[in-house]
What we know:
The protein is α+β, with helices and mostly antiparallel strands. It has 13 helices and 11 strands.
Amino acid sequence: MDHLSKALADTHLRGSLLAMLDFAAPWSVDFETAHSGAPTHYIVSGEAWLDRMGEPPLRLVPGDLVMFPRWDRHILSCTPKTEGTLTIREVVARSKGVRWTPGEWLDHPLSISIPGDGPRTTLLSLVFELDENTPHPLLLALPRLIHLRAADTQIGPWLQQLMQFLIAEAESQRGGYAVVSSRIADLLFMQIVRSELLTRPEQVAGWLRALVDPAIGTALAAMHDRPGERWTLPALARISGLSRSGFCARFRELMDVTPHQHLQRLRMEAAAARLSAGARVKSLADEFGYATPFSFNLAFKRHFGMTPSAYRNRHQLLEM
């Protein structure tokens, strides 16, 4: 398995919101920065104008998709001029009592309309979430705006097929909707990332660029395969085929963190997934190379802002 495939296989959405938005002109919605996640909009019909705070307005047509990996503030509207703007919080408040908590995949999609006599625009909007507390390195590696155009023959066909699946699920809401739609969203997210890296590699940075680097990508793959191993700099440098100093410099250049910092994050993410499944703290301390449960607790709390036990209990309550 190549490094990119391995990294994508290890990436799972922890939560996502799906909403069908049907707006009649005049309309304008301010997607103010709300929390972590990557808001994504697909134009089903009609058209929309995207305002990115200081950038020229961008016209979006049916089949276009835009994603903001770091949730930069943006406004979608029916014209290049944004007047009478509603915030996304005000729009979601019209969703007939359905409430959404970040990190949660709803059993039913939000369905929101803005009535009026003008031309209509239908959008399918999602919020992809990979991490509840800190920005995921994958999102940080992507450009601030991803724009996939329907007219792009390398992107249009697969994008339209996946979105049609999501639209059909949102409209039918048959049994199993939450599982099926979340799996489709998972595939959609991976395809967006894959397309951006393979077609516009100069636009990505950090983790993604490191994955396709012949030397650092090999070391990263080993770390991701075996995060609990007691990795040393000499061992990682040998895997990469570089000297110790060359490996450290190249790693820091591409990842903007040291190998130790990346390994710590990797271990914490893996430990969090195991805690969500009910694993015991002591077994995880041993599994991920910590001398004592106390040292593991300290590292986990620095990363997530809560103890491993609190994290596990919180997730078990959410699943009840």
